Amino acid sequence: MKCPYCEHIDTEVIETRDSEDLGTTRRRRECSKCTKRFTTYERIESVPIIVIKKDGRKEQFERGKLQMGILKACEKTMVGIEDIERIVDEVERELRSLDGVEVESKKLGQMVAGRLKKIDKIAYIRFASVFRRFVDVEDFEKELQKLA
Question: The pTM is what?
Answer without folding.
Answer: 0.66
